[in-house]
Design brief:
Number of strands: 2
Radius of gyration: 17 Å
Number of helices: 7
Helix content: 40-55%
Protein name: BadM/Rrf2 family transcriptional regulator
CATH class: Mainly Alpha
Strand order of the largest sheet: 1-2
CATH topology: Arc Repressor Mutant, subunit A
CATH architecture: Orthogonal Bundle
GO molecular function: DNA-binding transcription factor activity
Structural class: mainly alpha
Shape: elongated
Order of helices and strands: HHHEEHHHH
Pfam family, one: Rrf2
Strand content: 5-15%
CATH superfamily: Winged helix-like DNA-binding domain superfamily/Winged helix DNA-binding domain
InterPro entries: TR_Rrf2-type_CS, Tscrpt_reg_Rrf2, WH-like_DNA-bd_sf, WH_DNA-bd_sf
Length: about 160
């Protein structure tokens, strides 16, 4: 369900929050510490900086820092940068969002009523859970890692 860029953005933002006291951290250091490709980390950091999630400073003493407090940053805000405003609103049976399906067919798809509560619960969780929730709580970190893990269930690929 989530693109790789969204998954890595969450990991990068949580990493920056955990290392906030270190000050600016370069893209290469982030990539090295998270064991990610430096060019891909750079591509993920650009939209994060453009959207104001992180601050970017160029130059020999430059790097990236979180632009706000971790408790003020819902996970959904990060995901929407890469997935768009309609994240999780796409119909599971057809290649359109639910609103478009209704306009075209006059009704929801056959499984909409069953899926809608789960979708809303997921969106609400991503709206209310912040980066701060994943800083010191090992159980939350394991939960997020299981969602983001590349080898995990296909529901998030």
């Amino acid at each position: 369900m989530l693109a790789s860029a969204s998954k890595y953005a969450l990991k990068i933002v949580i990493y920056l929050a955990k290392n906030k006291k270190s000050g600016k951290i370069g893209g290469k250091k982030i990539a090295e510490d998270l064991q990610l490709s430096a060019p891909f980390v750079g591509k993920v950091l650009q939209p994060l900086a453009h959207s104001g999630i992180v601050k970017s400073t160029k130059g020999p003493h430059g790097g990236f820092v979180l632009a706000s407090e971790p408790n003020e940053l819902p996970l959904l805000n990060i995901i929407q940068i890469f997935e768009g405003e309609n994240v999780f609103k796409e119909c599971l049976l057809y290649s359109c969002n639910c609103k478009d399906h209704i306009e075209e067919h006059g009704e929801h798809c056959r499984i909409h009523e069953e899926i809608a509560p789960a979708r809303e619960k997921l969106l609400e969780s991503l709206r209310t859970r912040t980066v701060a929730d994943f800083l010191n709580n090992e159980e939350n970190n394991e939960s997020l890692n299981s969602i983001l893990d590349e080898e995990n269930s296909s529901a998030f690929h």
